[in-house]
Amino acid sequence: MALVAGIDSSTQSCKVVIREADTGRLVRSGSAAHPPGTEVDPEAWWTALGSAVEAAGGLADVAALAVAGQQHGLVCLDPEGRVIRPALLWNDTRSADAAVDLVRELGDGDLAVGSSRWADAVGTVPVASLTVSKLRWLADHEPQHAERLAAIALPHDWLTWRLSGAASLDTLVTDRSDASGTGYFDAVTGAYRHDLLALALRRHVAEVADIVLPRVLAPNEPAGRGDAALGLGHVTLGPGCGDNAGAALGLGLVPGQTSLSLGTSGVVASVSSTPTHDASGLVSGFADATGHFLPLACTLNASRVLDATAGLLGVDHAGLSELALAATPGADGLVLVPYLEGERTPNLPTATGSLHHLTLASMTRPNLARAAVEGLLGLMAGCVTALAAQGVDVRRVTLVGGAARSDAVRQIAPSLLGVTVDVPEPGEYVADGAARQAAWVLSGGATPPDWAIGEVATFDADPTPDVVARYSAAADEVAARLRG
Ligand SMILES: Nc1ncnc2c1ncn2[C@@H]1O[C@H](COP(=O)(O)OP(=O)(O)O)[C@@H](O)[C@H]1O
Ligand SMILES: O=C(CO)[C@@H](O)[C@H](O)COP(=O)(O)O
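Above: inputs. Below: predicted complex with adenosine-5'-diphosphate.
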């Protein structure tokens, strides 16, 4: 039976799954850590990919593979294909002012007009995370690097290219899902917007015509063979995808279904047959990996809020969960607004985290653990509301990502989000999506192969609107202070 590999090059690590192409049965897997930080030498991803593949027993018996990756990261390549500077990641907020400038400029000086023009053009209003904002930052702060730009790639594009042997810049490929996160690709027409790329680089359109942008392949279009020199001449490469589109494909979501991913980022993403154009900027109008759309709301803070709180309390994740479940809902009034890395949804890149309503009664270890879980889920409730405002009907979500392993998150999520929460077996659903894409490319079929996702536990709870309201009031206070 043919085997396929799926790779998830995410923020904190690289994960590899090897599955049977026809059934999706997991055969083996491996992972390797990525370095910390919000700018990373792509070579570190390449090294981690090699280690993860080795831990997964190699690719000698694999017929096809695809790479899913953290979205938006800016990989700058010179004419020889060398990386010009470390990649700026999706969670690097130095480009926050650049994003505001881009919105203002497209609006001829008016932010509201600019927001609606960006939303109309590419489905998304730039924030610090988007590639287009990082390019403007580069043009303004490192013009010597911007001048050498011969090609622009995203993390998954670059890794696919390396696996293919990186013969020339013209062999760079991507897919619609990841291209839609650049800010200079229109997922509705399927075309790059060179005018917006030129705006970002402060150049005329004719001056960016020579910059190579990866060719956008169809969802099941082969990207050629792997590099024979790497021992991958027998492997068909898939186009790959952004990690959130990968998760949707791995979970087998169809239009109308929504995922809640709590990894480094927190993401509520819904597969949709129609695009969104949210001028408020809260919802990004991305594409999925099957030809549909993937409106999503993404936070900078998620699993690491729990990591940091567990560290502070001197417990592991199981201990944090136990403590949180020992406290009563609402944590005796204690509220954590978890903007530990700034925030993107809402767009408050310079925000910091804050604890509200500390009293002798509320200042206990269980309450702090509970406030961390409720703060994270309060933040995600805002994402659900933002999607609903765009007409996305979210009544149930499928919970994935590292923090989906937390019992406290599973049990408390339905009450704060006000939806049913389905939790599949812990797994690497982004890598699974990449593997499923590889199997699709291999089969040449019109639709991805049917793979079962196994046991799903369902969590329901009575809504706790008072807890959400207290969180929202504290978050509004922070926003009001920052916005002056
Ligand atoms: N049981 C758990 N409870 C809460 N968080 C967890 C648990 N297990 C792992 N994590 C956290 O999940 C994160 C990794 O999740 P993952 O989805 O792989 O992230 P990413 O894809 O962004 O690299 C880490 O921050 C890790 O500490
Ligand atoms: O910026 C986004 C989506 O717009 C993030 O979701 C990144 O794609 C990083 O994902 P994880 O490493 O948290 O999975």
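Residues 3-243 form a domain with the Nucleotidyltransferase; domain 5 fold (CATH 3.30.420.40).
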